[in-house]
Here is the input.
Amino acid sequence: MGATIQNGYVLTADDLRAVDEQILEYLEEGRVTPRYVRARLEEDLDGYSRGYVQQRLARLEEHSHVENLLDLGLYELVDDPREESDDE
Here is the structure.
């Protein structure tokens, strides 16, 4: 699947920031928490707080690309916005 519509807005690969791309790569490996992502980002990208990482995960969740399992802060990839849909 590709873009997902939330409140009339389509999230596409062009809408993603570098940090979003990196978060999605971690999610491809498995489930993540904001704290885990923040620790991994220190290795790959610098200067992101855990709160900012949480905001980015919330945005991906808002557009149905990730799911916050049982609202515990454990996120799982549902639909990768970097993949193009068959409709495009």
Notes: Helices lie at 18-29, 34-44, 50-62. The beta strands are 4-6, 9-11, 66-69, 74-77. The first strand starts at residue 4 and ends at 6. Residues 65 and 80 are 6 Å apart (CA to CA).
